[in-house]
Amino acid sequence: IFEAVGAQGTVVLDEESLHVDDLDLFDGDSGLRFAEDLEVSELKVGADLEREGDLGEVPPHAVHESNHLTDLYRRDETIQVKGNGYVQSPRFPNSYPRNLLLTWRLHSQENTRIQLVFDNQFGLEEAENDICRYDFVEVEDISETSTIIRGRWCGHKEVPPRIKSRTNQIKITFKSDDYFVAKPGFKIYYSLLEDFQPAAASETNW
Question: What is the pLDDT of residue 1?
Answer without folding.
Answer: 35
